[in-house]
From TrEMBL:
Gene: mrp
HAMAP family with a match to the protein in the record: Mrp_NBP35
One MF annotation (Gene Ontology) recorded for this entry: ATP hydrolysis activity
Protein name: Iron-sulfur cluster carrier protein
PROSITE patterns tied to this protein: MRP
Entry-linked SUPFAM superfamilies: P-loop containing nucleoside triphosphate hydrolases
Lineage of the species this protein comes from: Bacteria, Pseudomonadati, Pseudomonadota, Gammaproteobacteria, Alteromonadales
Keyword match Nucleotide-binding: yes
Keywords: ATP-binding, Hydrolase, Iron, Iron-sulfur, Metal-binding, Nucleotide-binding
Complex formation: Homodimer.
Length: 353
């Protein structure tokens, strides 16, 4: 390891290297770097702390002193149409056109993946008619506490805060709610929860693209959305409707997650494309969106979700967890660099509660 100061050429080498690891441009790395020839501070505007170890060893391999390079992630709030909730920088809806494609499983794993990548994360289960987040977080019998009988303290699950209608009312009660009641309940939960400072609040939306979903998308100060789909035509057609719905209410869609992309036999490694091939990629290309990840149909994803220990927390170093981590970084990166609100509104801030 050399003790020489960083010269311009070395800095450029470092920017190039980091750019390659994080798949951003050299200029984007340079833009978040401050410092002098003795010490560099690089603050990435997206969640990527899991990649720091790779960056550090690559810098060491170049013969430079990585201890003089400070890496961190600082996520900024993005523009929203509605007043932002002050403690929450960005609210991301996880939506699907079709039911049962793995939206909730993906939302929960993505929430933990974002946390592993260094972000402060909360999850709001807005799937009023079928809240499955409490089961997936392993605390279906928990209840949020209140100190003033007006506001709820969200539940804390391994560092992620969470609230769900599933914690608040018996599971059958919400199934008979009409649209206005459901969207009022969602607004109440979001506004009456004492959310701590969060970089991201992940909102697990109800499946579908009807009036209820449209109203919800308009009533929550969403920053952006992602759409989960399986690769089969019938799901893609609904996913397309979901994208159109967000376009209609001017909520940027950050990308698509293709779930249940294939099944790979554990014994022989053969891949079966159970729900067709590459439908998510085709949809992404057609809609000019990013394909954030392709996740297989895998028994461990299902088992861990049922056990209330999402795969990414149960097996953080598994190949599948790496896919979720990559997807989380991609989402965060898309939001940092490519999110565009079509109108040019500023971010109004309302006082908390
Ligand atoms: N990649 C996957 N591999 C295996 N099983 C999965 C995968 N993704 C989801 N599942 C399983 O599929 C079922 C449906 O998943 P999930 O509840 O997440 O879907 P959803 O789209 O949120 O459903 P809903 O329409 O009811 O809201 C669950 O049993 C879940 O464990």
């Amino acid at each position: 390891m050399s003790n020489t100061l960083f010269n311009q050429q070395q800095k450029q080498q470092i920017f190039q290297l980091i750019g390659q690891i994080l798949t951003i441009s050299e200029q984007q790395v340079a833009a978040c770097c401050e410092g002098n020839s003795e010490e560099l501070t690089i603050r990435f505007p997206f969640a990527c702390t899991k990649e720091f170890a790779v960056i550090v060893s690559a810098i060491d391999e170049l013969g430079m002193d990585s201890t003089r390079i400070k890496l961190s992630c600082e996520i900024a709030p993005k523009k929203t149409k509605l007043n932002r909730i002050p403690s929450i920088k960005n609210i991301i809806a996880v939506a699907s056109g079709k039911g049962g494609v793995g939206k909730s499983t993906t939302a929960v794993n993505m929430a933990f993946a974002l946390q592993s990548q260094g972000a402060k994360v909360g999850i709001l289960d807005a799937d009023i008619y079928g809240p499955s987040v409490p089961i997936m977080l392993g605390n279906p019998d928990a209840r949020p506490q209140s100190e003033d009988n007006k506001h709820m303290i969200p539940l804390n699950c391994q560092g992620i805060v969470a609230n769900s209608v599933g914690y608040l009312i018996p599971s059958d009660d919400a199934t008979v709610w009409r649209g206005p009641m459901a969207s009022k309940a969602l607004q109440q939960i979001i506004n009456e929860t004492l959310w701590p400072d969060l970089d991201y609040l992940i909102v697990d939306m109800p499946p579908g693209t009807g009036d209820i979903q449209l109203t919800m998308a308009q009533q929550v100060p969403l920053t952006a959305a992602i759409v989960v789909t399986t690769p089969q035509d019938i799901a893609l057609a609904d996913a397309k409707k979901g994208i159109a719905m967000f376009n209609k209410v001017n909520i940027p869609v950050l990308g698509i997650i293709e779930n249940m992309s294939y099944y790979q036999c554990r014994k022989c490694g053969h891949k079966e494309f159970v729900f067709a091939t590459d439908g998510g990629q085709k949809l992404a290309t057609e809609q000019s969106l990013a394909l954030l990840a392709q996740l297989p149909l895998d028994i461990q994803i299902r088992e861990h979700a049922d056990e209330g220990r999402p795969l990414i927390t149960a097996e953080p170093d598994s190949t599948l967890s790496v896919v979720y981590l990559q997807a989380a970084m991609n989402l965060s990166k898309q939001l940092a660099y490519n999110q565009t609100l079509k109108n040019d509104e500023s971010i109004p801030i309302v006082e908390k509660h």
